[in-house]
């Protein structure tokens, strides 16, 4: 595959120049076929994700296939409107004119995706890349081979390889892809690899979207409702076994509420996953041995409040609560991306700045409080991609909200219409009329300067 990449990319470039992908009926037809195929293959997709890392089928349906289908339906419904040239008020100095924004496909798109929501995070950008009239090469993660295989099968049953091509393989394949000429690169993954992608895109001034990660805080103040907050945190944290880019990474809880919150967190963990969480059908496994060992390493020398065991053959780690790790411990330095939840108490709100700002701008932030003034202050004082007040993860569920990071957690945003716009160049066109030609802009300039 690696050696044939340059020829395959050139074939896509030639195909784009035929203009076929710009045809609106063609784009809609492909999107409809993709929708039908996903609907047909939904069970097989669930099976693939289960065999990759025992992702519970309910989570696959809600966060992968149905999520993608909802985006497809929205795109098909609105495509004519979103693709239409948009008229804007004309500038008076250009009178008489009509002014327009034309939506032009960039051309050849590269989409590199991670393993944690491997179906959603590959298909979602693909839908809008196609909808906007582009070709695309997809490079899914090597860590979810079954899901990649089904994506490959699905895509090739709907699109020609000159239009959409799936490149299976690891970082080496991604590196070869990055050496080719692209008109846009859409990358989802770690901040570390995001920097590599950005550097390589910069060489050709290729525009990018970078959907990255970070340490997303979850603040619980003394006015929060402990049982409800605990339920909502446990749900958001342990979905996909904590391997969610916007999962709460750690809790900062007011010291007066800490004991009560911990008690409720443990209650919720037991209620959701039983006394033997390894027997629960609702907990995914850790994606790889490397990640499994990395997570165990993060637990070294930490005080465990709950959980903490592991099973290597099953790559299983139960929901684990870690008590008051120090600020410079490894678990507080890197994105956890697993079922470990540090709990840190604070006495004064000013301490939040120290904890949160020392870790860069996170992809998400959560705050549980009844105090409106604290909600406002938190939104004003901290920079983060997006968040939810009194719950977790829900900012991703509304397609009218932009999804993306800021600073080291990402560049650009997508979902819904923003996705279509992401893959379209906005071309500004002024259409001048010929029936009038006011002369004042032409030399010799005779307009008194005080009239300008
Ligand atoms: P990763 O960065 O290791 O890998 C992502 C993709 O990049 C994979 O396809 C991989 O093959 C490729 N890759 C790896 N090394 C590369 C290199 N040197 N050059 C080019 N490509 C390379 O990320 P991951 O482990 O798959 O996913 C976890 C990370 O992704 C976490 O940091 C998480 O927060 C982040 N993430 C972000 C979002 C978001 O929407 N912002 C969503 C999911 C995951």
Q: Could you write a compact summary of the structure shown?
A:
Helices cover 40% and strands 17% of the residues. The protein is built from 13 helices and 16 strands.
Strand content: 15-25%
* Ligand species: nicotinamide-adenine-dinucleotide
Q: Please compute the radius of gyration using only Cα atoms.
A: 25 Å
Could you give the order of the helices and strands? HHHEEEHEHEHEHEEHEHHEEEHEHEEHE
Keywords for this entry:
7-stranded mixed β-sheet, 13 helices, 16 strands, Aldehyde Dehydrogenase, Chain A, domain 2, Aldehyde Dehydrogenase, Chain A, domain 1, aldehyde dehydrogenase (NAD+) activity, Aldehyde dehydrogenase, NAD, globular, 40% helix, alpha/beta, binds nicotinamide-adenine-dinucleotide, Ald_DH_CS_CYS, single chain, Aldehyde_DH_dom, 452 residues
Structure description:
The protein is an alpha/beta fold. It has two domains: 227 residues, Aldehyde Dehydrogenase, Chain A, domain 1, CATH 3.40.605.10; 180 residues, Aldehyde Dehydrogenase, Chain A, domain 2 (3-Layer(aba) Sandwich). Helix content is 40%, strand content 17%. The protein is built from 13 helices and 16 strands. The strands form three sheets. The chain has a seven-stranded mixed sheet, with helices on both faces. Helix 8 crosses helix 9. The longest helix is centred in the first third of the chain and has 30 residues. The protein is globular, with a radius of gyration of 25 Å. 42% of the residues are buried. The mean pLDDT is 97. The site of nicotinamide-adenine-dinucleotide has 28 residues, from helix 6 and helix 7. The site of nicotinamide-adenine-dinucleotide (NAD) has 28 residues, from helix 6 and helix 7.
């Amino acid at each position: 595959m690696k050696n044939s990449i340059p020829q395959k990319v050139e074939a896509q470039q030639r195909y784009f120049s035929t203009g076929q992908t710009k045809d609106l009926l063609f784009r809609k037809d492909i999107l409809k076929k993709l929708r039908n195929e996903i609907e047909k293959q939904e069970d097989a997709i669930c099976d693939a994700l289960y065999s990759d890392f025992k992702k519970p089928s309910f989570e696959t349906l809600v966060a992968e296939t149905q999520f993608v289908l909802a985006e497809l339906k929205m795109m098909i419904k609105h495509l004519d409107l979103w693709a239409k040239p948009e008229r804007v008020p004309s500038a008076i100095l250009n009178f008489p004119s009509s002014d327009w924004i034309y939506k032009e496909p960039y051309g050849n798109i590269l989409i590199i995706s991670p393993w944690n929501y491997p179906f959603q995070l590959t298909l979602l950008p693909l839908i809008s890349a196609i909808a906007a009239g582009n070709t695309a090469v997809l490079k899914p993660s090597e860590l979810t081979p079954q899901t990649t295989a089904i994506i490959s099968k699905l895509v090739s049953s709907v699109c020609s390889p000159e239009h959409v091509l799936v490149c299976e393989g690891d970082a080496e394949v991604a590196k070869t892809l990055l050496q080719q000429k692209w008109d846009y690169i859409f990358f989802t993954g770690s901040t570390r690899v995001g920097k590599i992608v950005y550097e390589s895109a910069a060489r050709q001034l290729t525009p990018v979207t970078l959907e990255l990660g970070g340490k997303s805080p979850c603040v619980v103040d003394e006015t929060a409702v402990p049982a409800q907050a605990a339920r909502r945190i446990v749900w958001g944290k342990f979905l996909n076994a904590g391997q969610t880019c916007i999962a709460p990474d750690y809790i900062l809880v007011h010291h007066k509420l800490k004991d009560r919150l911990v008690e409720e967190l443990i209650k919720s963990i037991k209620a959701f996953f039983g006394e033997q969480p390894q027997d629960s059908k609702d907990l995914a496994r850790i994606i790889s041995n490397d990640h499994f060992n990395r997570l165990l390493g993060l637990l070294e020398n930490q005080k465990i409040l709950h959980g903490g065991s592991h099973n290597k053959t099953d790559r299983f780690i139960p929901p684990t609560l870690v008590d008051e790790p120090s600020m410079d411990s490894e678990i507080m330095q890197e994105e956890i991306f697993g079922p470990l939840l540090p709990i840190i108490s604070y006495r004064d709100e000013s301490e939040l700045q120290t904890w949160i700002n020392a870790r860069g701008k996170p992809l998400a932030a959560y705050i549980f409080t009844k105090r409106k003034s604290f909600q406002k202050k938190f939104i004003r004082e901290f920079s983060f991609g997006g968040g939810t007040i009194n719950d977790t993860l829900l900012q991703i569920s509304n397609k009218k909200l932009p999804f993306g990071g800021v600073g080291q957690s990402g560049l650009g945003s997508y979902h819904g219409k923003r996705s279509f716009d992401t893959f379209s160049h906005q071309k500004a066109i002024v259409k001048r009329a010929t029936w009038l030609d006011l002369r004042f802009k032409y030399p010799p300039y005779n307009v008194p300067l005080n009239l300008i």
